[in-house]
Amino acid sequence: MKKIILSNKGLTLVNEEIIKESYGDKISLVKDYLDKNFMRGATDKNGEMVGIFVKINNGIPTSKTMWKQDVLDILEREFNKILSDKKERDGFLNQVTDDWFNRKITKYGNLSSYNF
């Protein structure tokens, strides 16, 4: 058996890569669900543009629009077993939703942040 000695910085990098890898499939599941069921939109709220989610049916936008919290509630019901810890699951779904809306999920299924 071989031993590897890492500095604190090296250990942090290795840990971050392990975390990214462990969430990859879960991110893809949620992203695919969002892609199939919602599209991005915006509305004027008090003179400021605010992001909204537009429900789609077979790829066609419907008249149903939702706020982020409404979508998070749906995701919580749909993916209630994706992670066992509720606080971690809520943070994960929140980050995936933000990154999906802002098109920050990479083609390899990585998020912009794993601080949840």
Mean pLDDT: 89
**Based on CA inertia axes, which overall geometry fits?**
elongated
Give unreliable regions as ranges: none
Structural class computed from helices and strand pairing: alpha+beta
Oligomer: single chain
Radius of gyration: 17 Å
- Secondary-structure element string: HEEEHH
Strand order in space, largest sheet? 1-2-3
Q: Treating each run of at least 4 consecutive H or I residues as one helix, how many helices?
A: 3
How large is the share of residues in beta strands? Answer: 15-25%
DSSP strand count: 3
Distance between the termini: 35 Å
Residue share in helix: 40-55%
Quick one: biggest sheet? 3 strands, antiparallel
Features:
49% helix, alpha+beta, 3 helices, 116 residues, 22% strand, three-stranded antiparallel β-sheet
Question: What's the helix and strand layout?
Answer:
Elements: H1 8-37, E1 38-45, E2 48-57, E3 60-66, H2 68-78, H3 86-101
Antiparallel strand pairs: 1-2, 2-3
Helix pairs in contact: 1-3, 2-3
What does this structure look like?
The chain is of the alpha+beta class and 116 residues long. The chain has a domain at 28-101. The chain contains three helices and three strands, in the order H-E-E-E-H-H. The chain has helices at 8-37, 68-78, 86-101, and strands at residues 38-45, 48-57, 60-66. Strands 1-2-3 form a three-stranded antiparallel sheet. Strand 1 (38-45) and strand 2 form a beta hairpin. Helix 1 crosses helix 3 and helix 2 crosses helix 3 (86-101). The longest helix has 30 residues, at 8-37.
